[in-house]
Amino acid sequence: MEIKKTSLPDAVTASRSSGGQSAALFMQVKITIDSRLRYLKFPADIEDIYEQETGAYRLRQLSLYALLGMVIYDFFLIIDQTIIEDVFQTALIIRLGVMTPLVLLLLGLFQRGVSPAFRETAMAVLNYLTGISLIFLMAFSNSENKIFYHPGLILVITYSNLVMRMHFWDALVSSALLFITYIFFFPSLPTLPVQVPMANIMILFGCNVLTLYSNYVLEREQKLSFLYSLLERIRQGQLATQNRKLSRLALLDPLTRLANRREIDEYVARLYEDPHPNMLAVIMLDIDHFKKYNDTYGHPAGDDCLKSVARVLKQIIRRRGDVVGRIGGEEFIVFMPEADMPAAIKKAEEIRAGVMQLSMPHASSPVANVVTISAGVSAGQIHFDTNPRQLLLDADEALYKAKSEGRNRVASA
Known about the structure:
Structural class: alpha+beta
Number of domains: 2
Order of helices and strands: HHHHHHHHHHEHHEEHEHE
Number of helices: 14
Radius of gyration: 39 Å
Number of strands: 5
Strand order of the largest sheet: 2-3-1-4-5
């Protein structure tokens, strides 16, 4: 059976996005594989995934097999006319008036969509009724040739169990009921030796056993193959998730959880590519007299100060597409695509005021008795012939200007 291999994170991780759920599913699949599927049953979660990936194809497959089986079944009217000619009219009614409309009705329901349980049960019942119709015609015919009808049952069982490949437990019930019905209604002929009915029964029994065993093996191998495929996709999904986390961590400053120098460099490099913003504003920020802060309060307090400033930046710079990073010890940078100079200056002032409102004591600062920052702002259009790095240089010059004018202020290029 064709298995639609959705990416694991499509059929699986779309509904199991958390790592814990993915790990739980992974363990459940492993346990199911270790059980070797002796009873051919999946746990409910895995059954849902299996049906999601194979159900549509299975429905199309059964529809095709039912249609093909109906054509072959009706074609055997030619045999009916020569072997059981005395009940040919009855055969005509059963084949064309009962079974064919039943198959067409079932195909119509399949087109509208049915549950997996109905789909499989309906096919099992249809196959059983097909066999019953042959037994009925044999039982009520008085033709001595009716004993040659026996191979028709073998054809029904083989088609159901191996070609259509009904689910094993459905196939087992259908085949067993058909065998019991055959024994009960077996059309014995007075002129035949007693060994003939016994031989026919044994042949039918052997057909049931062999086709059911083959059906079991095929279904088990198919489901185990699906489990191994699912297990591998879960592994790949977990690996991809882990790689994304590692890639993200490689681009983050571990202390502030802002973009690090590498991410900033990559962002600037991408500004040369299409598509790129038409306008870009850059804000460079520096914590005033941060070395003195470290010397006075110690490096752990300095780390806390950096994290506090980073939180202010995250709270204020929240537009989609904006980038906030830490590029040095106490230096930060903000990129604001499609923002002009007035908008960038306004944000820089909000950041400066936000840091002051933290009221972090800075007794050794000649600027204020709390931690303050200085900011330099630049903005300009991005054209194919311009260098985005010039905006960084302009922002750096503006930052130097803010420091030289007394710090705790915003300056523009």
